[in-house]
Design brief:
By secondary structure, this protein is of the alpha/beta class. It has helices at 21-25, 56-62, 101-107, 113-129, 173-181, 186-196, 203-213, 215-240; strands at 5-12, 32-34, 39-41, 71-76, 86-89, 93-97. Helix content is 38%, strand content 12%. The chain is globular.
Length: 242
């Protein structure tokens, strides 16, 4: 069995109250595993960048020492450098912020845990693509694309577009080819694609979305369902004399 990537997740300062850290810690995957439950650390500094943002160097100093993980993801709620929602720091460390992102997910009834899962898969494959290394944001890379496809490698220059890759996200054909050409096994890519289908809205909201997109079909189904219920009620009454 192939060795799983060891990931450590920490929170840095406050995160949205509704974020279920236990659910995240219990996430199962065929390509990664967590070395421990999510750990919480204080943010012991103030903003030092433009528009009250926190620079990469500032946040790097707040992160804990490595503890056997292959890479670390820190979750926070503060504005990051250049107002990005994710920054790749040195030494295989990544920081992600819910700043602005959480609101977009709430508005579209998407569990905020989904964006964390999206990151876990995206950076796991980047780690493999980089030969066990995640390049820093200051390095030139080409693993994201400007076009919004619902792919885990969408750039999301307009942050709102992130909703499209947090509900049954994909790995597009171009990214699949890129990963394979850089040495990531096609079996791992396929495994991730299968697991990504499980990242979705809750059943109630999926049903609501389907009804909104198919009003005529919904009306027909509701009418047929009412007819069936009526027939069953009438049949039961005749049998049992109700």
């Amino acid at each position: 069995m192939a060795k799983k990537i060891k990931i450590r997740i920490v929170t840095l300062g406050a995160v949205p109250y509704s974020l279920d850290l236990t659910q995240i810690s219990n996430k199962n995957s065929s390509i990664f595993e967590f070395i421990s439950p999510v750990e919480n650390f204080n943010l012991n500094s103030n903003a030092d960048g433009e528009n009250w943002s926190f620079t990469d160097s500032n946040l790097s100093k707040q992160l804990p020492e490595h503890d056997g993980e292959d890479f670390l993801i820190a979750l926070t709620n503060v504005q990051l450098e250049l107002n990005w929602y994710s920054r790749r720091l040195k030494d295989n460390c990544v920081v992600f912020t819910f700043h602005e992102i959480a609101e977009y997910l709430y508005l579209n009834n998407i569990p905020i845990e989904n964006v964390v899962y999206r990151l876990l898969y995206a950076y796991s494959l980047v780690y493999l693509e980089g030969k066990n290394r995640i390049p820093a944001s200051t390095e030139n890379t080409n693993f994201t694309h400007d076009e919004t496809k619902g792919c885990i490698y969408d750039m999301n220059g307009h942050k709102y577009d992130i909703i499209h890759s947090c509900d049954q996200p994909i790995i597009c054909d171009a990214c699949s080819h890129r990963l394979a050409s850089h040495g990531v096994s096609t079996s791992k890519i396929t495994q991730v694609k299968n697991e990504l289908t499980k990242i979705k809205k809750k059943l109630y909201y999926r049903t609501s979305d389907w009804i909104s997109k198919h009003p005529v079909k919904s009306l027909i189904l509701a009418t047929l369902w009412g007819f069936v219920i009526g027939m069953l009620t009438n049949f039961t009454s005749n049998i049992f004399g109700f």
